[in-house]
Write a structure and sequence with these properties.
Blueprint (H helix, E strand, L loop, with lengths): L6 H6 L3 H7 L6 E3 L2 E6 L3 E9 L4 E4 L3 E3 L1 H9 L3 H9 L8 H39 L1 E2 L4 H8 L11 E13 L2 E16 L5 E8 L11 E2 L5 E2 L2 E4 L7 E4 L6 E5 L2 H9 L7 E4 L3 H5 L31 E6 L5 H18 L4 E6 L6 H10 L2
Parallel strand pairs: 14-15, 14-16, 16-17
Antiparallel strand pairs: 1-2, 2-3, 3-4, 4-5, 6-7, 7-8, 8-9, 9-12, 10-11, 13-15
Helix pairs in contact: 3-4
């Protein structure tokens, strides 16, 4: 039996902010417990973050993980090469006492991180739920106007959508909470697999803008996303429509894409849930040599993304065409394969939108030329 590589424990004990510096990841700014900025692989403005307390990173497009996964992502290498980059050559010999000492230290650090992470998740969930409870049903509000502007006359208004008349847009900048905007917002409950509330999706609105979303800027004058989520979203979904007896689930990344498929009645009698972001829909991928995105899911413990409930026999992922097609396709393939591995007998497939557009863009374009 092959002995475990002691470098694995050593690598996971390294501080992720030190590894980020060694990788020359630039443009990160301190925002409370995290550092945020452009992704070193896919760019953007604030889609990438590092949480020093938890020892993890996340990109809304590329996904996330620990220090080893960060090296894999930035260096474009496999697990073995990442371990080599972090710790050098494997030690020829290591005593059982030393191995036990390293493992014990790792367990202590891991318990500390998990405790802090759970404490933060509970705090974030509580704050998000308070916002949710303070919001009103979306029917008859600016949230309905916004959806209509996007060509979405919903057959019924889902209970998961609400409206907050004046919601602050707050971000941590240099360890201080900074209010960058305040105004009306559509909010959506992000639910755990058992249906309980876990997080909140927020979209700030301005009906004078072409697509109805507010223009929000950071202190440096850069326009940032009008959408934020608050609370833990792993393995969760925004459940827009779930008819009785449904056995098919149609899932897009965002509310607008998923609602577009629902309004178009793309698959009659199907449920329509939004996956929040690609990272959640895809989960983590296994790195394959020579490939940046393999499309192969990591089915190891703790690596799961979204997995559909047991009643789903057919899963359809809607692929937006307005982002990196190879990256997006690989992520959705990983998500499909994960779902089929976790739910034997399930059939999963991907339906793409036109290149350069998401599904909602296609519907709006069709309405303008209709």
């Amino acid at each position: 039996m092959q002995k475990p590589d002691p470098r694995l424990t050593t690598a996971k004990l390294k501080k992720i902010e030190d590894i980020a510096a060694r990788l020359n990841i630039e443009g990160l700014k301190r925002a409370g417990r995290e550092m945020t900025g452009p992704c070193p692989v896919c760019g953007g403005h604030d889609r990438f973050s590092i949480n020093s307390d938890m020892g993890i990173f996340n990109c809304r497009t590329c996904g996330g993980g620990d220090v080893i996964r960060l090296v894999e992502l930035v260096q474009g290498c496999n697990f073995k090469d990442a371990l080599q980059w972090l710790c050098g050559d494997a030690e020829v010999e290591i005593s059982a006492v030393e191995m036990a000492r390293r493992e014990e230290r790792f367990k202590r650090e891991q318990m500390k991180r998990e405790g802090e992470a759970d404490k933060y998740r509970q705090y974030a969930r509580k704050r998000a739920h308070a916002i949710w409870q303070g919001a009103v049903p979306a029917k008859g509000t600016m949230a309905e106007d916004y959806l209509r502007l996007r060509g979405l006359a919903l057959p019924e208004f889902p209970a998961c959508l609400r409206f907050a008349p004046d919601l602050p847009y707050v971000k941590k900048i240099n360890k201080k909470s900074v209010r960058l905007h305040s105004g009306p917002a559509m909010v959506a409950a992000i639910q755990l697999p058992d249906g309980r509330f876990s997080a909140l999706h927020q979209t700030w609105l301005d009906m004078s803008q072409p697509k109805g979303k507010a223009r929000i800027f950071d202190p440096d004058g850069n326009q940032i996303s009008a959408k934020l989520y608050a609370g833990p979203k792993k393995s969760c979904a925004i459940r827009l429509h779930t008819p009785q007896g449904a056995d098919t689930l149609v899932m897009g990344e965002g509310i607008e894409t998923t609602a577009t498929a629902w309004v178009a009645d793309a698959t009659p009698r199907a449920a329509y849930w939004a996956g929040v972001d690609l990272g959640n829909m895809a989960g983590r991928q296994i790195k394959e040599k020579g490939k940046r995105y393999s499309g192969v899911p990591d089915l190891g413990g703790g690596a799961d993304g979204f997995v559909p409930p047991a009643w789903v026999k057919r899963l359809i992922y809607v692929m937006d065409g307005d982002s990196n097609p190879k990256d997006t396709r690989a992520k959705l393939e990983a998500g499909c394969r994960r779902a089929m591995a976790r739910r034997p007998g399930l059939v999963a497939s991907i339906v793409p939108a036109d290149m350069g557009k998401d599904l909602n863009d296609m519907i709006l374009e069709g309405a303008r030329h209709g």
